[in-house]
Amino acid sequence: MRMKIVLAALNAKYVHSNLAVYDLEAYAKEHLKNDETELVIREYTINHNLDLILQSLYQEKAAVVAFSCYIWNIHEILTIAKELHKVAPDTRIWLGGPEVSFDSERLLQENVCIEGIIQGEGEVTFYEMTKVWSQKADVDRVAGIMYRDETGMIHQNPPRAIMSLDDVPFIYKDLTRFRNKILYYETSRGCPFSCSYCLSSIDKRVRFRSMELVERELQFFLDHRVPQVKFIDRTFNCKREHSLAIWRYITEHDNGITNFHFEISADLLGEEELEVFRHMRPGLIQLEIGLQSTNPETVKEIHRTMNIEKVKKNMLAVHAMHNIHQHLDLIAGLPYEDFITFRKSFDQAYDMKPDQLQLGFLKVLKGSYMEEQVEAYDLQYQDYQPYEVLCTKWISYDEILALKKVEEMVEVYYNSDQFAHTIPYLLSFYPSTFSFYAALGDYYEANDLFGIGFKREARYEALRQFAIADPTITDLSMTVLDDLLTYDYYLRENAKSRPAWRPEEPIDKIVYQQFFKNAGTDEVWLMKEGYDSKVAARTMHIEPVSSKSVAWILAEGISDYLQSADAVDTNEDKTCYCLFDYGKRNPLSKDAGVKILTHL
After folding, report:
1. Is residue 575 part of a domain?
2. Which residue of 135, 197, 443, 592 pairs with 466 in a disulfide if CB–CB is 3.0 to 4.6 A?
3. SS3 for 92?
């Protein structure tokens, strides 16, 4: 009878896949010499009903269930493991992954249902354990595990030597297993940096997959036109020749569809990389950049090596290209970062013009240097996942809560990219960017707006009411505010109903239809093969705005997706018209193409 081993993963979202369990399965299958072992992968999400996951795993009738453990799923996994042990006491339960590799003894002591833990890199260890479980090898000869013997005694085996990344099989040969999933891919392991909050700093032995293999696998993704490939290399561009070779390859072999995501250090970018970026299709790559803090004391204490001015210079250079999405991370609760210095970090990060600004909160990871320093920092954090900071000697819990409000406002009003012209106008009334988002968060709290399931239009109305009510905002032009709110509102979609702050139809129906009839001959910008004025009138939208509002609309300059038919005198108060073309969307922002007209 074949021995069944289940590799179980609880992902954060349905679209995620667990690269680790697929790597373990692929490596073991490649080395197993017979078919006596059946390997099965079962993926769930943390939103699944735990009873249903228990039922599913129980019905597998497996000899072994091995769970892949991370900060976001450890609580659910331990809960399921305890219940599974009750109903299937003969099933051997093992854990692996970063959440259990550095705290193995405590976990085994507190959870008698767990037989053992695979520590660190798992491909070879898991394969060797399959032989142990089938009684063809001795457990005490397997490196990289901690386990409980039949008497209950816990044993720690020697650590596992690192493997060559070229020995890790390519798991995506059968893409049907990953339908509607993000594909994760690694070309390096380890990290040369020593950031105290990060587990990657523990293994500084950086290894790279050979470019021959990488290019072959990249071509596979491109040939199969997969939507997105997310590189999980910890600092993708830590070795310039490696990252440059990959960026050049995907640029030269671009299929017009696939997007690649990378985590990088922006200060390591040089002119060669920027030159490659300039030739990329909009949306070919997206960059995630860890800034964390701009406070020099904090940066030094967390062992970061970073040239902040170069980060800013490079991010602004990439921003000016209008073809690459940039995501920037900040972490609140780091040592030596108080409320005042974090405000400064926030403002400086915002000035780097990321497409998304992630205001995160310190997570105290098991095995990290940060965990060793909790007493020195007076660092209080949650006892449960995700082990998030509550307060430190530099920042109070009240201040953390204030930052939580700012985080929510940034997520809604900045990261959504649906208020891209209204927000800069309102920011002009504030002494700092942070003070604006803090005031907006206070308004939400005072009016019990947090936790409400807003419809899209209601977010605009809430921002409008805030601007009217806030005493900081003096000399507010309601014309400009309503123009910009309306512009942002229609930029994303051709709304079927008028917004509450501007309910009237802006243009006479006959004038509107006549414009599109004339546009077939007069407006070169609208000329397309098979142009149909009736279709154009339905699939486009025209909105009048004040010429003074146009200054805010054109603040970033003209582009392929924002054009102006004539020079607009923004000092005069005249009516201009914004023509939204939803068939010509910006591939990066998905906003409609816009042409500003001085007359119809």
Report:
1. yes
2. 443
3. strand
| Mean pLDDT, each 10-residue run in order, the chain (600 residues) | 93 93 96 85 95 98 98 96 98 96 94 97 96 88 96 96 96 94 95 74 80 98 97 94 98 98 97 98 97 95 91 97 97 98 98 97 90 95 94 98 98 97 96 98 96 92 96 91 97 93 90 82 61 85 93 83 74 87 90 90
Alpha carbon 228 to chain centroid, angstroms: 13
360: which DSSP letter?
E
Residue-level pLDDT at 562:
84
pLDDT of residue 541: 93
281 in any annotated domain: yes
Measured between alpha carbons, how far is 327 from 348 in angstroms, rounded to an integer?
Answer: 14
Question: How far apart, in whole angstroms, are the C-alpha atoms of residue 425 and residue 430?
Answer: 10
User: How far is residue 469's CA from residue 57's CA, in Å, rounded to a whole number?
Assistant: 56
d(CA 201, CA 179) in angstroms, rounded, equals 33
In the chain, how many domains are there? 3
* Residue for token pair 């409400």: 452
Count helices and strands in the chain by DSSP H and E runs: 21, 21
Q: Is residue 486 situated within a structural domain?
A: no
Contact present, 25 and 7 (Cβ < 8 Å): yes
Query: Domain limits at 565?
Result: 497-597
SS3 211: helix
Residue 262 to residues 244, 256, 273, 349, 506, Cα–Cα distance (Å): 12, 18, 13, 19, 44
Distances (CA, A) of 281 to 20, 216, 244, 276, 320: 31, 21, 16, 11, 14
SS3 content of the chain, % helix, strand, coil (to 5): 40, 20, 40
Q: What is the pTM of this model?
A: 0.92
Tell me the Cα Rg of the chain.
28
Distance, in Å, from the CA atom of 470 to the CA atom of 262, rounded to the nearest integer, reads: 40
Q: The domain that contains 75 carries what CATH number? A: 3.40.50.280
What Cα–Cα distance (Å) separates residue 444 from each residue in 150, 449, 463, 530? 58, 5, 10, 49
